[in-house]
Structures are given as C-alpha cells and as structure tokens.
Amino acid sequence: MSTSYLAHAKPAPACAVRMDLYTVARPLIFRFNAETAHNLALWWAGNVVRGPVRWLARAVHEVRDPRLAQTLWSIAFANPVGIAAGLDKNAVAIPGLAAYGASHLEIGTLTGQAQPGNDRPRLFRLVADQAVINRMGFNNQGAAAVAARLARRYAPVAASGNRPPCVLGINLGKSKVVPLDQAADDYRVSVRALGAFADYVVVNVSSPNTPNLRDLQGEAMLRPLLTAVRSELDAVAPPRAGRRTPLLLKIAPDLADAGIDAAVDVAIATGCDGLICTNTTITRSGLTLGEAQIQALGAGGLSGAPLRQRATAVLARVARRIRQLPAAHQVPVIGVGGIDSAEAAWEKISHGANLVQVYTALVYHGPGLIAAINQGLIRRCEQAGLKSIADAVGRSL
User: Which domains can be identified in the chain, with CATH numbers?
Assistant: First the structure.
C-alpha cells in the first residue's frame, strides 16, 4: 500500500460524517420543490463555500492519491470523478463546487442566445427510484454573459494567469429559437465567446428538452456541425505546443446501435477528441411509479439510477468501436448515468470510461458522494492488484 494513500486515508471518516449530515438535512431540503432546492444548493456553493468554509470543504472532500490521477488530452485530472453539465449552468459556483473534490466541472449547457427555458414546473424528483426528470430546456444567461463572468474571474487557458481550481469543461447547445439549418452558426457564436476559457468543449446535441435538437445526432447534420465547431474552436483557441482544445460529443442513450456507431465514426472523422455517454433518456422503463403518475409528470429527460444499465451499455458499445480504430484515432470516453457509488463508477470505468461524472446522485447523497466514490475506487484498485485507475479502464469489455 502506498504511503500516499496512508497519508490521505484519514479524511474517510469525515466524508462519512459529511454524508450522514446530508442525510439528516435532506428531508428539510426535500421540503422545497426540486428546482428551488437546486438553486439553493447552487447559492450555497457559490456564496457560503468561500474562504475558511471552502478550505474546510476541500479538507473533508479531497481524496489525493496518485493511483487516481490521469493525464488525458495533456490535461491532468486529479481523480476520475467530475460534476456533469446542468448543475452550474452559468458558472456562478465553480470554486465552491470544486471544493467538493471533483477533478473537473462541466458548466452549461450554454447557448448562443440567453433563454429562460421551459415553463415551470420542469424538474421533478422520483425519490423511490433515486431519479430525476427534467425538462429545463437549456435555461441559461447566454454565452456572452457567462463569458464576461469567466473573464472577470479567470484568464484564458493560453494565459499564465488565474485558472479555475479544477478542470473546466464548457457544454454548448442550440438556442431554441434558432432553426436546425442554422445550428452550426449558433454553436459558433458560443465557441467564439467561450472557447478560450475551456479546458475542453462539449457539443450537446442529445438533450430531449429542446425541440428537434436530437435530429442533429443524425450523420447528415452532425458531420457539418462538428466540422464547423472544430474549425471555430481552433480559431478561437489555436493549437499550441502540439495540443489543441479538446472537443467532445455528448450522445443520447436512446440511439439505436447503428446510430451509436455512426455518431462515433462522425465524431472521429470530424476531429472530436472524445465522447460523453450519455445524456438523459426519454424512456420510462423500470420505474416504480404507476403509469398514471408517470404520465402526470409529463415529458423530459430521466436521469439517475434507472439510467445506469442503458448508459453503461451505450458506453461499452462506444468504447469497443473506438478500440477498433487505429491507435492514433482512439480517444477517451466519459461515462455518465446512474453513478451513485464506487461500484457504479467502477462499472463505467471497467466498461471503457476514462472519467465519470455525477449529478442526480448528488441530489440524494450530497457532495460527500464524490469522496466516497474516490475512496471506493482506491479500494477496488487494491483488490484487483492494479497500480492505477487507468489500468481498470475497459477491463470488462
């Protein structure tokens, strides 16, 4: 056992206490509707987790061990666990959320134009299923406003000045009012505003909550879109020292096998550097709710525990497809969907995920979840006799 792990194993009890405290607080939090609770959690991370409180949060939640570290796209990730897009849409709480121990945070989804999103109510907890349904509709302040906020706080990636305390991904979508045939121009607007601040950029064409957005996943529309975004990103953040800003594609779990394969092939052919598997699902299979209750909740994307199996299946198919490519074209994959424990994270990693992201599980388990996952991944590496988490990637393929 490494001395590094021994030196940093002591926070585990604090992590357990932190999760227990959240368990105590959760009934009070759940007295608020889901969107109000979301906004309160974001306000807390942005306004309370500061100064000494932020230092304490990092002391409790950070798990530092060289076995968890990886370098992907020439970027150092302290551990494999990140926070998915959708939690901090407008980049208002980056330092506070980073203090919860995530190696990376994906802000957004951001669009070229500011938009209020869909009508409320639009976010629902399914407590018995440890799930959430959302039809938020890319509510955000717009690329220009968020770029101005980032410029006030952080230097562009190419500069030597202040940078966020974790790897920063920026997730981009299409403005609702923009027609599909003008989508590329709309994404270009966002890239032009935000690309210089991103450690990596994500093209989101897989949310079910913007009308017809998922049509962009088809090869005929996806190819010119990704080509345009790649070109704009290289113009805004020119490659340096042999490294360009990574561009990732986020896909839906509802694609058929042929659609998954086509998305991978187009992504690689157009210069994408990775994929994220997966977004939310429009299916409702496996829920404990009755049909009438499900219908009453209405449309939206389902996330959380019920998505785990399908998200892993899509991830595994993507990873296998990528492994069939020449080594020069093999790219990392990020696994998302139903990750609520070290076991679930290990499942994603062993099925091809280099990194994983959490979101819905934070609603049910609190920010201590990230440390619990990282501690559990260390134990699993030890049990499997692996020197690093990177050695676990794809073991079950």
Answer: 3-392 (3.20.20.70)
